[in-house]
Specification:
The protein is mainly α. The protein is built from eleven helices and no strands.
Length: 236
């Protein structure tokens, strides 16, 4: 009886810790976003802020690590160390996000300099002055589409492989294969979740920053928990 009570208290503690860390990470993202916005406005590059908002989507696999104590605390005979749960796959997550970060930065800088503002500091630094057109609307909608693509990629090869590894680790390559196969069997679900994550990250950061503090943790927790439980059902 004492053991059950102890496990219940541990599980409750783990859930509380996950919620606190998720809220703190949301505050940190908002703080960094507003700092970037202020610097971009100062250098007259405010229209490029949407590209940075898109880039924050790539942090979702890293933030998902904070939810592992919440996801894994139910029904365990022995509650493992919360730090072990969160750090178990951090190397894989950081590697994937680093690759996407460089792709995103290169694309955002090149597209902005070529199509939006040929008089910007970036365009002058890259010596781009032979294309004259204001395609700022295309830049805006292109970034929203890119946000959905990044969100889908982050879910399929960032968030889900680590969830798979926590429940049924079969090696790095095999975990990716299982993740992609699972996503392929649930295409509509993943597309819907990708669009939801893109919307609740990019739009609040652009227009109503403090709404991000409410939207992101609630929606992201729901998405991660649902994917986790759906994959658990597959294993049964």
């Amino acid at each position: 009886m004492l053991k059950k009570k102890l496990n219940y208290c541990q599980a409750k503690y783990l859930r509380l810790m996950s919620y606190v860390l998720l809220i703190l990470s949301t505050i940190a993202i908002l703080f960094i976003a507003e700092l970037i916005r202020s610097y971009l406005i100062e250098y007259e590059l405010g229209s490029m802020f949407i590209s940075f908002c898109v880039g924050f989507i790539l942090l979702t696999p890293l933030v998902s690590l904070l939810l592992y104590p919440l996801l894994l605390s139910s029904g365990l005979k022995q509650v493992p160390s919360p730090f072990y749960m969160m750090l178990k796959n951090i190397g894989l997550v950081l590697l994937v996000q680093l690759l996407f970060f460089f792709i995103w930065m290169t694309d955002a800088i090149a597209v902005y300099s070529i199509y939006v503002d040929q008089d910007s500091f970036l365009a002058k630094a890259l010596n781009i002055n032979n294309f004259r057109a204001d395609l700022s609307q295309e830049f805006y909608w292109g970034n929203l589409i890119l946000a959905c693509v990044f969100s889908l990629i982050s879910l399929v090869i960032g968030v889900l492989p680590c969830l798979v590894a926590q429940l049924n680790n079969q090696g790095v390559v095999r975990n990716f294969v299982i993740s992609i196969t699972f996503a392929n069997h649930n295409k509509v679900l993943f597309v819907v979740y990708a669009c939801i994550l893109a919307a609740i990250i990019v739009l609040p950061l652009l227009y109503t920053p403090f709404l991000f503090l409410l939207c992101f943790p609630i929606a992201f927790r729901y998405v991660c928990c649902d994917l986790f439980h759906r994959y658990q059902e597959v294993l049964k």
